[in-house]
Amino acid sequence: MKIIIVILSFFIFIKNINAMNLLEKKKNSENFQKEWEFISDQVMGGLSSGKIDLIDFGEANFIRLSGNVSTENNGGFIQYRSDYNFEENGFRGIKIKAKGIPSEYYIHIRTNFLFLPWQYYSGKFSVTENWKYIEILFDDFSKSNFYQPSEFDSSQIKSIGFVAFGKDFDAQLDIIEAELF
């Protein structure tokens, strides 16, 4: 019995070593405003509006993206994003724990090969009103333009954004955990 516990503990420990927490240093109240940037389609004349908040949830905080997404005037997005610099390239995807107003949302990844603001890789996911874990493999991300490289690895990531996009709706996306795996 002791050997089984030791083996299980080893695999749990190894699994945690091979994951990188994306929010650990970026969701405390001291760093929050410095680490995360809210962006909407207003930068290009759109009419979407929103905000990000750090919500106290007992022992853990979560980040809330909320607002109104409007496709009027060629718009259609709100997002928050943060810069990253990963040296490891062995990660296969992103795992989040999320909830919100039920809808489709996106994770946008920009790499060091993308220079224009409209270039990104997009991973789609859906949320419900209850917390749930969601895994999105990098292989399942779609490129935004035909001339981008078809694939990327984690060492090329320079920013990660959580996005409400592409249709008229009231958005609310809560993220309490996010990690590369």
Provide a concise account of the structure shown:
This protein has 181 residues and is mainly β. The protein contains 2 helices and 12 strands, in the order αβαβββββββββββ. The longest helix has 16 residues.
CATH architecture descriptor: Sandwich
Order of helices and strands: HEHEEEEEEEEEEE
How many structural domains in the coordinates?
Answer: 1
Radius of gyration: 17 Å
The CATH topology label is Jelly Rolls
Q: Give the end-to-end Cα distance, rounded to a whole number of Å.
A: 29 Å
Protein model, in words:
The chain has 181 residues and is mainly beta. The protein has one domain (22-180): Galactose-binding lectin (Jelly Rolls, Sandwich). The chain contains 2 helices and 12 strands, in the order αβαβββββββββββ. The protein has helices spanning 2-17, 32-35; strands spanning 20-21, 37-40, 49-57, 60-69, 77-83, 93-100, 103-111, 121-127, 132-137, 142-143, 157-165, 169-180. Strands 1, 3, 4, 6, 9 and 12 form a 6-stranded antiparallel β-sheet that branches. It is globular, with a radius of gyration of 17 Å. Residues 2-17 have low confidence and may be disordered.
Key features of this structure:
Jelly Rolls; six-stranded antiparallel beta sheet; disordered N terminus; 2 helices; mainly beta; 181 residues
